[in-house]
Amino acid sequence: MTQQTSRRVALVTGGSRGIGAAIALRLARDGHAVAINYASSSAAAEALAAQIRQAGGQAAALRADVSDPAQANALFEAAEAALGRVDVLVNNAGVLHVQPLAQTSDEQYEQMFNINTRGTFNMLRAAATRLADDGRVINLSSTTIALNLPGYAAYIGSKAAVEGFTRVFAKELRGRRVTVNAVAPGPVATELFMTGKSAELIEHYARLPPLERLGQPDDIAGVVAFLAGPDGGWVNGQVLRANGGVA
Ligand code: NAP
């Protein structure tokens, strides 16, 4: 049943864990109704939606693999069916495999480009006709693009495309009063970053930025909230690096 709402509605892909979960909570706290997309973590996504509802907000947990065009379109429709419309789209779903280019498997390459790049493309294409006027689009890129870190070639490639989509799509939505921006975090303490790294390597990354710590999901959620909110309305077609000054 459609829940019409006077709140602005945000759809966050990959909202079940990590940065996406922090973004969903923060946007809910800022007064948005939130559609929380996930691929497999249904319990985490449902628990987050319940937490938002208990705090007086509106939320729905919606399963979809954004790399599949039909599921991406259906996700937009499901968010509209649950919450009435979509005003803010946050393309956050992503995966990382750290591997020198020579050792990157076809499967790893395909997974990163299918989810990070094609998933974002699928959601942008759906947003072109479905996002409400006066809307906001925020894509997650990565500061690895500026660092050119060995081991990150395919991941950086998948995110470089996202930055290209951001700049062009901002222009293609002329006349709709929609802004399209990207946020490019540095290392953030989530499963995606921590997996497969030794304590020493994590400490190394934590010491890289002049602020001498890892980013936390809330650091990134605050930047996304700025771009989604009234104060960010004149920022358009930009990539905002949120990384403690690492690059
Ligand atoms: P994370 O903790 O691993 O969470 C990834 C999220 O993406 C999960 O909610 C996961 O859903 C979802 N997801 C994965 N594949 C999906 C698919 N096919 N369809 C829909 N959802 C899917 O990652 P994170 O660190 O929060 O990263 C979030 C974003 O920030 C990514 O785009 C990442 O590239 C970017 N980023 C992260 C860092 C960092 O250091 N952490 C730095 C720069 C950029 P399930 O729970 O259902 O699996």
Walk me through this protein's architecture:
The chain is an alpha/beta fold and 247 residues long. It has a single domain, classed as NAD(P)-binding Rossmann-like Domain (Rossmann fold), CATH 3.40.50.720. It is built from nine helices and seven strands. Strands 3-2-1-4-5-6-7 form a seven-stranded parallel β-sheet, sandwiched between helices. Helix 4 links the parallel strand 4 and strand 5. Helix 1 packs across helix 9 and helix 3 packs across helix 4. The protein starts with 8 loop residues before the first strand and ends in a 5-residue tail after the last strand. 47% of the residues are buried. The mean pLDDT is 97. NADP nicotinamide-adenine-dinucleotide phosphate binds next to helix 1, strand 2, helix 4 and helix 7.
Low-confidence stretches: none
Total strands: 7
Total helices: the number is: 9
Query: Which secondary-structure class do the elements indicate?
Result: alpha/beta
N-to-C CA distance? 47 Å
Secondary-structure topology with pairs:
Layout (H helix, E strand, L loop, with lengths): L8 E4 L5 H12 L3 E6 L3 H13 L4 E5 L5 H15 L4 E4 L14 H25 L5 E5 L3 H4 L5 H20 L6 E7 L5 H4 L4 H9 L9 H12 L10 E4 L5
Parallel strand pairs: 1-2, 1-4, 2-3, 4-5, 5-6, 6-7
Task: List its salient traits.
Rossmann fold; binds NADP nicotinamide-adenine-dinucleotide phosphate; globular; alpha/beta
How would you concisely characterize the structure shown here?
By secondary structure, the chain is α/β, with parallel strands linked by helices.
